[in-house]
Design goal:
alpha+beta; Arc Repressor Mutant, subunit A; four-stranded mixed β-sheet; three-stranded antiparallel β-sheet; elongated
Amino acid sequence: MTISSASVPDRVMKRVRANGRGSVFTPRDFLDIASRAAVDQALSRLAKSEQLRRLARGLYDFPKLHPKLGALSPAPDDVAQALARETGSNLQIDGARAANALGLSTQVAAQSSWLTDGPSRRVVLGKRIVDLCHASPKHLIAPGSPAGTVVQALRHVGASRAADVAQVAARTLSDGDKRLLSKSVAQAPAWMRATLLSIASAVDDGPSEQSASPSRF
């Protein structure tokens, strides 16, 4: 196998630049380049030289720059995804954010929270807080998917607004996500199963593929 003559920091920065400003990452994103110790050392050097920014222990970004404000804070979603990649964990936005995403609530929390099957972790980004809270499998139904977002929104608003969730979800979910919802019904609490089944039943006859966002790293 041919080993690149470029230094580890150079190879790390090449990948970071390819992902663009605003990208967030952890050492695990570069373990195909070098050993963990070498990657840790490279990231530390790049942060000291201000080519990268250290956000927290084992967490870095390549910040977007504003002509007047300077380096901007990273998107909480990108921070959460990077932390999940580091531990190989699944993520699911919490119920309040899920309800907001479906237009069932207008409240916007300063604290961005996710449920995860990995370790809990909190990162403070100025006035914003990114919280990953370890949760049991019953709270992580179809994690990271639109179908999972529907389940979380329904859990948040409760049975009294189940019809509202069903109306929005039946209209906005892809057929692939509706099929995923159908497969996940047995994991859901008994009170919401009928609503989830009604959403899942609104599937077109034609084939549909479930889309997934590719990893930035």
